[in-house]
Automatic annotation (TrEMBL):
Mg(2+) 2 binds at D86, D89, D212. Its cofactor is Mg(2+). InterPro entries: CysQ (IPR006240), CysQ/Inositol_MonoPase (IPR050725), Inositol_monoP_metal-BS (IPR020583), Inositol_monophosphatase-like (IPR000760). It holds the Pfam family Inositol_P. It catalyses: adenosine 3',5'-bisphosphate + H2O = AMP + phosphate. Its EC number is 3.1.3.7. Keywords: Cell inner membrane, Cell membrane, Hydrolase, Magnesium, Membrane, Metal-binding. Belongs to the inositol monophosphatase superfamily. CysQ family. GO terms for molecular function: 3'(2'),5'-bisphosphate nucleotidase activity; magnesium ion binding. It is an enzyme of class 3 (hydrolase). It comes from the Bacteria. It comes from Aeromonas molluscorum 848. It is found in: Cell inner membrane. This is 3'(2'),5'-bisphosphate nucleotidase CysQ.
Length: 251
């Protein structure tokens, strides 16, 4: 796998973050898609920045974004290598102004996210990495390697869950674990907390799409963690159905 310079991808992610913050800091309107998920000018603006930036940086690699049209959604089924983008992951968090939203950029090869970058504009914090490539966190101008911390027997499970989609099925999944410390949080930040060693488990028994998970999965796998379906099989990408099955992210 060959990657363009990480600094150039970071520049694209940060430019998208700037576009998001420009909207975030003023009054904005909210539209709703057919599935009733929210859409703002920030989603659209970040999409334009990322698609243009990646097209200039890697013109030979196509881009699939959450805000791509139906033509791209159909074309991507023939792609072996492409950028998978969520320009604003956590639009509900954006609308509620709690800061828990991210810019997600992943490189997918052969149905697997091999590298990813997650940027949290409000936190000005960035994570990137991939399996066998390591994982890193950049904050305050300093980049450092990060590593998961698996659960220690005899201690409560440190679990992250969705702020908006903590389903009954998820609660039932957690029940046999006994004592847990549960932190609710939006967007792909949940994966990044596990990657940094701040939690051990994120079960997702509620709907997500591939662009919600690709970049953060790559970061978590680079940090030594895993993301699998409930039966333990890998979470696959570029499926005919863009929806993910239920999955568990682990340290």
């Amino acid at each position: 796998m060959s990657l363009p310079p990480i600094a150039k991808i970071e520049a694209i992610a940060r430019a998208a973050g700037d576009a998001i913050l420009a909207i975030y800091q003023q009054a904005f309107t909210v539209e709703y898609k057919a599935d009733e998920s929210p859409l703002t000018a920030a989603d659209k603006g970040a999409h334009d920045v990322i698609v243009a930036g990646l097209a200039s940086l890697t013109p030979d690699i196509p881009v699939l974004s959450e805000e791509s049209g139906e033509e791209v959604l159909q074309a991507r089924l023939g792609w072996q290598r492409y950028w998978l983008v969520d320009p604003l992951d956590g639009t509900k968090e954006f609308v509620s102004r709690n800061g828990e939203f991210t810019v997600n950029i992943a490189l997918v090869e052969g149905g697997r996210p091999v590298w990813g970058m997650v940027y949290a504009p409000v936190l000005d914090k960035l994570w990137y990495g991939g399996k066998r490539l390591g994982a890193f966190c950049s904050e305050g101008g300093v980049s450092r390697p990060i590593q998961t911390r698996p659960h220690q027997e005899g201690t409560p499970w440190r679990v992250v869950g969705s702020r908006n989609h903590l389903s009954q099925e998820t609660l039932d999944f957690l029940a046999p674990l006994g004592e847990i410390d549960l932190v609710s949080m939006g967007s792909s930040l949940k994966f990044c907390i596990i990657a940094e060693g701040g939690a051990e488990l994120y079960p997702r028994l509620a709907p997500t799409c591939e662009w919600d998970t690709g970049a953060a999965q790559a970061v978590l796998e680079g940090a030594g963690g895993s993301v699998t379906r409930l039966d333990g099989s890998p979470l696959e990408y570029n499926k005919p159905d863009i929806l993910n099955p239920w999955f568990v992210a682990r340290a």
